[in-house]
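Q&A FORM
Asked by: J.P.
Topic: structure of Cyclic nucleotide-binding domain-containing protein

PROVIDED:
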Amino acid sequence: MGDQETIKEKGVIIIEKFEKTFLKGELLFKQGDPPDEVYLVKSGKIEVFVNEGENKKRLNIVTEGEFLGEMAIIDGRPRSASAAALEDSTVIIIDRKTLLKQMEVDPLLGALITTLVRRLREMDRKLSRT
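REPLIED BY: S.T.
REPLY: Here is the structure written out as tokens.
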């Protein structure tokens, strides 16, 4: 993996992150993969898509400053979509275990994030039916 950095505040590890560059066409993760990491796009464009038989259905294009993979990392469900670099892209990768530890340190933040993810999953499920 790329460069590693730990950000500390008042002696508590806030976040452990890695930076990695994905080349155009390279997969960040596949639909069904375990949720090990969340990604923050530092530069480039990432396509989020699902495979429907022989076809690929684009769900989103994630660009600089946006997160992806956040729902699966919180609720622990397998990835509901795949993600690939549309162009050479650099992302900051945040490890699931580190994020969950931080949510334990700040239970209010953890509860808020968990609630938001549940609501997003429910909306996603409803939209996929239409």
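FOLLOW-UP: Residues 4-129 form a domain with the Jelly Rolls fold (CATH 2.60.120.10).
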